[in-house]
Design brief:
By secondary structure, the chain is mainly beta. The protein has a single domain, classed as Cupredoxins -  blue copper proteins (Immunoglobulin-like, Sandwich). Helix content is about 10%, strand content about 45%. The chain contains one helix and eleven strands.
């Protein structure tokens, strides 16, 4: 005699319950991808000059994305602004204020004003494309405190 689960008592009921559960439950929400952004300047290390922002990973899939920013500076406030743009040279810059003109960019959200040693997070839903992460504290963007982010399908 061959064993078949179809011949066991109650199997039809179990199969029906599994099918009904699969139909009635909503699909699981996809977890947000996390990008760790590090903000550094000359106060971070005696071997460093200038300013730097790094993102790891620098490429993520479209959907929910959490940006976790860590200000490793010992003395300066930094921030992370998410901008839809692929070319940092095209951002409108006010030389007198030493800042990007935020009212003229595709600003999607920010982790603002992180004091030295502090961290913060922001979750956004991003579509495929090219983005920049920038610090727009006075003089920081021009000093190199920005990085690219690519979002794929």
């Amino acid at each position: 005699m061959r064993f078949s689960p179809n011949h066991l008592p109650g199997c039809t009921l179990v199969r029906s319950a599994v099918l009904l559960t699969a139909v009635l439950l909503p699909p699981a929400a996809s977890a947000a991808e996390t990008i760790n952004v590090t903000l550094q300047d000359a106060t971070t290390s005696s071997s460093m000059s200038g300013m730097r922002m790094t993102a790891s990973p620098a490429t993520v899939k479209a959907g929910p994305v959490t940006i976790h920013a860590s200000n490793q500076s010992q003395g300066l406030v930094h921030e992370v602004i998410v901008v839809r743009s692929k070319d940092p040279a095209t951002l409108p810059y006010d030389s007198k204020a030493a800042r990007v003109v935020e009212s003229r960019i595709d600003h999607l959200g920010e982790v603002s004003d992180l004091a030295p040693g502090k961290s913060g997070s922001l979750t956004l839903t991003l579509t495929p494309g090219s983005y920049l992460l920038i610090c727009n504290q006075p003089n920081h963007y021009k000093a190199g405190m920005w990085t690219r982010l690519t979002v794929t399908q």
